[in-house]
C-alpha cells in the first residue's frame, strides 16, 4: 500500500519514550478476557458449592450411592448446577445485549428492555399462562415458547417500523417505536393479569419476577442455540460499533456498512434478550449495570467491552442468584429484586459521581 | 351553653344515638334479610347450607357450589366487583371481603348492610358461620352446621390417630410441565390446618406464612414422604397423574418420589374454607392414610 | 485524480424516485496535491457533493472516479482506504480517548477481526504529531476544546492514509483563533505532506487563503471553477451570493480577501 502520507514520512517512533503510551488493544483485550474469564470460572465453580442446605462434596461424588437415592448429589446436580449454568448464560446474554443496544441507540442508558422485546416476551408468557397452553416444541415448553413468540413479534414490529424509510435505521424511529411498543405491551400485560384468576395470577407474577431455578438442563438446552447464534453474530460487531457510535456518516466514510451493522446489532441483541427472558423471565438491571461497570474498568472500546461484559455478566448474575437463594433461606428473594437492589443504588452513586 | 343545659343534653344524646346506630345495624339480628349478594364463595356455600339459599340473588364469578348457584347472576369477585350490578339488584345484605374497603364504603353510602369477611384459618370457618348465622337470622341452623363440621373433623382426626404422620409437601400451584413456580402451604392457613387434622406433618410448618415458594434445593433437602398436589379445578385423567410422576421424577431422591406417594387431588372443596372442609380434609386423609379407610 | 463527471443527485427513498435534483450535472476534477474549495451559499449542494465524492451517497446520474476507477460498485471499505472525510462536528456517544478516536481511522485497512498492530500505532502517532495533538493522546476526546477536537478528527482522517481528504466546513464551529490555527494546519499538511484536500466551506476568506482551486456553486450547479485568482472575482460573487463585494489582494494577510459591501437584487 503506497499512500501519500506513509510514503512521505517515516514513523516518529523515536519520540515515544517521553510519555506513557496507552497500552495497545491486544494487551488490554487479553488482560480483560483473562481477568474476567477467571472471575467467571471461579464464580461458576464456587456457586454450586454454596446453598441454603449444607451438603457434603464427598457424598455428592460418591459413586457407590445410586443417584436416585443420593440427596446431596441431587441437590448439587439437579438443583444447583442447572441454576448456575442458566445464570451464567442469561447473565452473559443480557449483559452483551445491553452493550449492543446501547451502541445501537447511541445512549449509555439503553437496556435490553428499552425496545419492547422483553415486554413482548412477558406478554407471550402471560397469555400462555392464562390460556393454560400446553403445546410444546421439543425441549421448549409452552410458556418459554410463547414468550419467544411474543419477543419475536415485538422485535419484528420495531424492526419493520425502523426500516420503513430506508434500510438504514433511524435511531429516533427505533427508540420511538420501541418505547411505544413497550407501553402498549405493558398495558396489555396488565389487562391479561386483570382477567386472570388467582392461580394464573400467582404463576404470572412469579414469572415476571425472574427465576433461574430451572431444575433440569432441558430449558437451557432449548435456549442455547439462540444464545450461541446471538454470540456468533455479536463477534462481527465490536469494531463497527465503535465507529458507528462516533457517527453514522463518519462510520460509513470509514468503510462501515451502516445499515447492515444496525440490522445485525438489532437482530443479535434481540435474539439474546429473547432467549434470556424466555429462559428465566425478565431479569432487569443486568443489561445496564454490567456494561457500565465494565466500562469503568476497561474503557469504552467495544472490542474489549463486549467480551468482558459477557464474562462479567455471567459472574454477576450467578452471584446475585446465590444471594437470592441463600440470604433468606428457606425463603427465596426473586433474583430480579436482588439485581434491582444492587443496580438502583449503583446508579444513584453514578449520578452523584458525575454531578 | 351552660345556660341551656336541656338543649346541650339533647344534642349530646342525638350524637350518641347517631354514632351508635350504624354499628348496631351491622350486628343487629334481623329476620328481614331477603336479598343477599355474596362475593365470597365460601360464605355462599355456608348460606345454602344453613337454609338461606333462596335469599341469595347473586354470587361471585368464582362460585361453583352448590349447583343452584350456576343459574344465578354474577357480580365479579375480589378484584373486580361490579358495583352497578350489585346496586341494581337491590340487596339488603352484601357479603364482601374485609379488604374490599371501597366496596364497603360505597355500600354504606347506599345504606346497604355489609357483612365483612376476613379469612382466618380453619377456626375462622366456625367464627364466620356463627356471625353469618346471626346476620341472616338463622343462628340455630348455623350452630347445627358448625357442630356437624366439628364432629366430622373430629371423626377424621380420631380415625387417623395413632398412625405415624408422614412428612408432607402440600403443593397448591405449579407450572404444569415442570417444577418451576411451585407454591406450597407454609405453617399458616386452613390448608395447613386441614393437613394436620388429616394426620400429616407439613414439611414447611416452620415457615410462618400461608404460601411459600420453595426452590428445588429446599424440596430436596426437606425430603417429604408424601407429595399432595391440590388443584382447584379440572378433571383428572391418568395422563395428569403420569405427567406429575414424570415431572417430579427429576427429584428422585425425595422419598415421596421414590415410593410413588404422589397424590393429586382436584376439586374446589379442597380450597374453599367453607362447609365442605370435612370433605376436603377427608380427601387429604385418604391420600395420607389409605388403610384407615378400608 | 478525483474526478466527478455529470453528477446528478436528488433525495430519493424506496419507492419514491427523486422529485427534483439537489445537484444537477456537476463536474469537477481534483488534481493530486491540490487544495480545492467548494464554495456557495447554504443549500447550494456543496455538502451533498462532498458526500457523493466520498462515496457515502450514490448519484442518480453521473460517475465519481478515483485514479480512473469509478467508485460505483466498490465496497465502502475499499473506498475508505482512499478517501477520508472530516465532518463538521463529531459527537461520539461514548467517552473515547483521543488515541482510540485516531486509531479508528485504521478500520478500512484492517481485516474483520484484526486488531491494530505496531505499524498502525506508528501511523496514528505520526498523524497526531502532524496535527500537533500528540500530547493529548491519553486525554478523553470529550474534554478537549473545539479546536483540539477538530485537529484530532483530522488526525483520525490522516490515519486512514487517504489519497484525498474531504473536509466539511472545517472551521464553521471554531472560534477565530482556532480558525486561524486550522487554516495553518491544513496548509501545512497540504504543502509539507502533499495531502490532497477538498473542502466545502461558506467562509470566502478561508477559501481564498487556503485553496488553490475553487468550485463555485449555486442551486446545485457549478457556476465557475478554476484557479482561485481567476474564479474569485466580484462578478462571480455577485452571481452566486447576490452581493456586491470588494475582492482585492490583502498584503498583511498575504492572500485575496473578500469584503461584502451590499446586497443586490
Write the layout of secondary structure elements.
The complex is a heterotrimer of chains A (355), B (294) and C (265).
Chain A: H1 4-8, H2 25-46, H3 57-60, H4 71-104, H5 117-131, H6 142-162, H7 171-195, H8 198-208, H9 218-234, H10 238-244, H11 248-253, H12 258-280, H13 286-298, H14 302-326, H15 335-354
Chain B: H1 5-27, E1 36-38, H2 41-49, E2 56-58, H3 83-88, E3 93-97, H4 101-109, E4 113-117, H5 121-135, H6 139-160, E5 167-173, E6 183-185, H7 190-197, E7 201-202, E8 211-212, H8 216-222, E9 226-231, H9 238-248, H10 255-258, E10 262-266, H11 277-288
Parallel strand pairs in B: 1-2, 1-3, 3-4, 5-7, 5-9, 9-10
Antiparallel strand pairs in B: 5-6, 6-8
Helix pairs in contact in B: 5-6, 6-11
Chain C: E1 2-9, E2 23-30, E3 35-39, H1 46-54, E4 61-66, E5 69-70, H2 76-80, E6 83-86, H3 98-103, H4 118-130, H5 146-158, E7 164-168, H6 176-193, E8 196-201, H7 204-210, E9 213-218, E10 221-227, H8 228-231, H9 234-241, E11 243-250, E12 255-263
Parallel strand pairs in C: 3-8, 3-9, 6-7, 7-8
Antiparallel strand pairs in C: 1-2, 1-4, 4-5, 9-10, 11-12
Helix pairs in contact in C: 4-5, 5-6
Amino acid at each position: 500500500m503506497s499512500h501519500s502520507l506513509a510514503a512521505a514520512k517515516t514513523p516518529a517512533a523515536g519520540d515515544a519514550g517521553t510519555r506513557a503510551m496507552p497500552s495497545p488493544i491486544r494487551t488490554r483485550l487479553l488482560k480483560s478476557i483473562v481477568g474476567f474469564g477467571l472471575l467467571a470460572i471461579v464464580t461458576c465453580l464456587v456457586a454450586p458449592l454454596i446453598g441454603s442446605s449444607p451438603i457434603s462434596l464427598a457424598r455428592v461424588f460418591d459413586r457407590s450411592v445410586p443417584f436416585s437415592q443420593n440427596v446431596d448429589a441431587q441437590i448439587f446436580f439437579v438443583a444447583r448446577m442447572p441454576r448456575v449454568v442458566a445464570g451464567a448464560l442469561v447473565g452473559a446474554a443480557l449483559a452483551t445485549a445491553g452493550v449492543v443496544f446501547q451502541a445501537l441507540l447511541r445512549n449509555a442508558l439503553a437496556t435490553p428492555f428499552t425496545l419492547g422485546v422483553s415486554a413482548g416476551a412477558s406478554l407471550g408468557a402471560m397469555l400462555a399462562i392464562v390460556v393454560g397452553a400446553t403445546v410444546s416444541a421439543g425441549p421448549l415448553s409452552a410458556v418459554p415458547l410463547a414468550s419467544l413468540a411474543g419477543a419475536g413479534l415485538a422485535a419484528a414490529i420495531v424492526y419493520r417500523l425502523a426500516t420503513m424509510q430506508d434500510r438504514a435505521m433511524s435511531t429516533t424511529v427505533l427508540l420511538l417505536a420501541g418505547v411505544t411498543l413497550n407501553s402498549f405491551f405493558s398495558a396489555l400485560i396488565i389487562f391479561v393479569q386483570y382477567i386472570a384468576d388467582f392461580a394464573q395470577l400467582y404463576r404470572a407474577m412469579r414469572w415476571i419476577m425472574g427465576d433461574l431455578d430451572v431444575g433440569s438442563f432441558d430449558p437451557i438446552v432449548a435456549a442455547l442455540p439462540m444464545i450461541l447464534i446471538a454470540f456468533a453474530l455479536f463477534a462481527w460487531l465490536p469494531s463497527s460499533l465503535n465507529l458507528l457510535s462516533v457517527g453514522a456518516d463518519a462510520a460509513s466514510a470509514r468503510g462501515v456498512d451502516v445499515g447492515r451493522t444496525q440490522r445485525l446489532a438489532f437482530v443479535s441483541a434481540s435474539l439474546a434478550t429473547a432467549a434470556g427472558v424466555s429462559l428465566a423471565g425478565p431479569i432487569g438491571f443486568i443489561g445496564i449495570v454490567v456494561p457500565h461497570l465494565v466500562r469503568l474498568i476497561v474503557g469504552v472500546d467495544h472490542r474489549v467491552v463486549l467480551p468482558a461484559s459477557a464474562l462479567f455478566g455471567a459472574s454477576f448474575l450467578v452471584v446475585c442468584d446465590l444471594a437470592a437463594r441463600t440470604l433468606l433461606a428457606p425463603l427465596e428473594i426473586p433474583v430480579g429484586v436482588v439485581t434491582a437492589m444492587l443496580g438502583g443504588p449503583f446508579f444513584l452513586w453514578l449520578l452523584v459521581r458525575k454531578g | 351553653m351552660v345556660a341551656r343545659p336541656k338543649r346541650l343534653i339533647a344534642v349530646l344524646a342525638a350524637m350518641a344515638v347517631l354514632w351508635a346506630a350504624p354499628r348496631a345495624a351491622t350486628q343487629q339480628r334481623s329476620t328481614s334479610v331477603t336479598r343477599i349478594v355474596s362475593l365470597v364463595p365460601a360464605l355462599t356455600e355456608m348460606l345454602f347450607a344453613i337454609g338461606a339459599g333462596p335469599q341469595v340473588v347473586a354470587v361471585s364469578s368464582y362460585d361453583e357450589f352448590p349447583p343452584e348457584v350456576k343459574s344465578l347472576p354474577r357480580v365479579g369477585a375480589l378484584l373486580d366487583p361490579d358495583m352497578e350490578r350489585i346496586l341494581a339488584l337491590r340487596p339488603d345484605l352484601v357479603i364482601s371481603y374485609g379488604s374490599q374497603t371501597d366496596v364497603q364504603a360505597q355500600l354504606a353510602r347506599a345504606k346497604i348492610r355489609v357483612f365483612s369477611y376476613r379469612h382466618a384459618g380453619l377456626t375462622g370457618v366456625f367464627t364466620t358461620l356463627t356471625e353469618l348465622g346471626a346476620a341472616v337470622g338463622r343462628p340455630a341452623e348455623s350452630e347445627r352446621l358448625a357442630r356437624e363440621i366439628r364432629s366430622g373433623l373430629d371423626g377424621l382426626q380420631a380415625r387417623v390417630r395413632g398412625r405415624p404422620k408422614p412428612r408432607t409437601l402440600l403443593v397448591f400451584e405449579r407450572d404444569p410441565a415442570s417444577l418451576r413456580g411451585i407454591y406450597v402451604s407454609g405453617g399458616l392457613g386452613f390448608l395447613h390446618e386441614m393437613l394436620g387434622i388429616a394426620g400429616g406433618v407439613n414439611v414447611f410448618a416452620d415457615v410462618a406464612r400461608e404460601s411459600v415458594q420453595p426452590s428445588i434445593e429446599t424440596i430436596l433437602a426437606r425430603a417429604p414422604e408424601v407429595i399432595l398436589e391440590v388443584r382447584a379445578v379440572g378433571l383428572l385423567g391418568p395422563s395428569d397423574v403420569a405427567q406429575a410422576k414424570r415431572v417430579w421424577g427429576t427429584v428422585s431422591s425425595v422419598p415421596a418420589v421414590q415410593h410413588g406417594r404422589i397424590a393429586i387431588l382436584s376439586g374446589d372443596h379442597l380450597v374453599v374454607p367453607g362447609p365442605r372442609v370435612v370433605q376436603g380434609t377427608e380427601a387429604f386423609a385418604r391420600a395420607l392414610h389409605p388403610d384407615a379407610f378400608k | 485524480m478525483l474526478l466527478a463527471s455529470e453528477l446528478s443527485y436528488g433525495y430519493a427513498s424506496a419507492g419514491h424516485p427523486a422529485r427534483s435534483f439537489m445537484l444537477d450535472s456537476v463536474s469537477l476534477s481534483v488534481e493530486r496535491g491540490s487544495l480545492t474549495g467548494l464554495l456557495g451559499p447554504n443549500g447550494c449542494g456543496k455538502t451533498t457533493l462532498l458526500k457523493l465524492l466520498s462515496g457515502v451517497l450514490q448519484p442518480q446520474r453521473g460517475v465519481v472516479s478515483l485514479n480512473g476507477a469509478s467508485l460505483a460498485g466498490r465496497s465502502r471499505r475499499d473506498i475508505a482506504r482512499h478517501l477520508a472525510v472530516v465532518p463538521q462536528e463529531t459527537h461520539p456517544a461514548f467517552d473515547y480517548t483521543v488515541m482510540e478516536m485516531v486509531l479508528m481511522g485504521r478500520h478500512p485497512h484492517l481485516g474483520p477481526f484484526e486488531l491494530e498492530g505496531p505499524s498502525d500505532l506508528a501511523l496514528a502517532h505520526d498523524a497526531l504529531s502532524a496535527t500537533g495533538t500528540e500530547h493529548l493522546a491519553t486525554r478523553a476526546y470529550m474534554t478537549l476544546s473545539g479546536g483540539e477536537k477538530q485537529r484530532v478528527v483530522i488526525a483520525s482522517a490522516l490515519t486512514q492514509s487517504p489519497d484525498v481528504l474531504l473536509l466539511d466546513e472545517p472551521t464553521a464551529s471554531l472560534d477565530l483563533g482556532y480558525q486561524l490555527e486550522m487554516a495553518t494546519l491544513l496548509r501545512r499538511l497540504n504543502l509539507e505532506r502533499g495531502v490532497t484536500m477538498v473542502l466545502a466551506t461558506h467562509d470566502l476568506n478561508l477559501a481564498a487563503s487556503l485553496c488553490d482551486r475553487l468550485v463555485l456553486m449555486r442551486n446545485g450547479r457549478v457556476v465557475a471553477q478554476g484557479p482561485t485568482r481567476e474564479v474569485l472575482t466580484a462578478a462571480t460573487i455577485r452571481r452566486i451570493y447576490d452581493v456586491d463585494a470588494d475582492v482585492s489582494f490583502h498584503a498583511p494577510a498575504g492572500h485575496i480577501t473578500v469584503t461584502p459591501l451590499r446586497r443586490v437584487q
